Amino acid sequence: LVACFQSFHWFDPEPSLLEFRRILKPTGQLAVVWNDRNRQDDFTQGYSHLVQMASNHHPAESRMCSVDPLLASPLFPNVYSYTFSYQQALDKDGLIGRAMSVSYIPRKGLAHQKLISNLQELYNSWCDEKGLVYLRYRTRVYLAQPEC
User: Fold this and answer.
1) Domain segments of the chain as ranges
2) Average per-residue pLDDT in the chain?
3) Contacts of 25 (CB under 8 A, 6+ apart)
4) CA-to-CA distance for 81 and 99, rounded, in angstroms?
5) pLDDT on residue 16
6) Taking the model in full, what pTM does it have?
7) How far apart are CA 100 and CA 107, in angstroms?
8) What residues pair up with 32 in beta bridges, in sequence order?
9) What dihedral angle (degrees, nearest 10) is formed by the CA atoms of 35, 124, 43, 136?
10) By the 8 A CB rule, do 58 and 130 touch?
């Protein structure tokens, strides 16, 4: 199994797919997995908005995983897709840490302070009796089998 979790967009598709095919055993598979935030969920939408504003609308915030090169590749004629719902439970520190793990989020200055304040406010508005909030995702899994 060759697996790409939240990383397929970093690869140059044609040579990468060729290399994946080369290293796979005859019965091997390629898995491409991508999490998209569920923007139908009010809390997740609020979180996404705060991150987007803090990142000054960084292009990665609107990026969707494109598996078009995989779907078009004759090297992997059999591609199966599966979609799952997933939620990440976070306490206040976890929520702030999740936002700070994003590479393009400001680490200091007024924008950083404002984001922390806004995240704390969002958390306080949405936390449950366990002190948790939930980021909801749609996880898409693509399993590709090479030609025999």
Assistant:
1) 2-145
2) 91
3) none
4) 29
5) 95
6) 0.77
7) 8
8) 4, 142
9) 30
10) no
The fold of the 2-145 domain, in CATH, is: Rossmann fold (3.40.50)
Per-residue CA distances from 47 to 22, 27, 93, 111, 130 (Å)? 41, 41, 14, 15, 19
Candidates 35, 63, 38, 67; CA nearest to 142 is: 67
For 102, which DSSP code? S
Pairing of strands 133-145, 78-90: antiparallel
Q: Which residue has the higher pLDDT, 127 or 65?
A: 127
The answer to whether the beta carbons of residues 31 and 2 sit under 8 Å apart is yes
Q: For residue 126, give every residue at least 6 positions away whose Cβ sits within 8 Å of its Cβ, in sequence order, or none.
A: 43, 46, 133
**Structure tokens belonging to residue 66:** 């494109």
- Token look-up 């990383």 returns 7
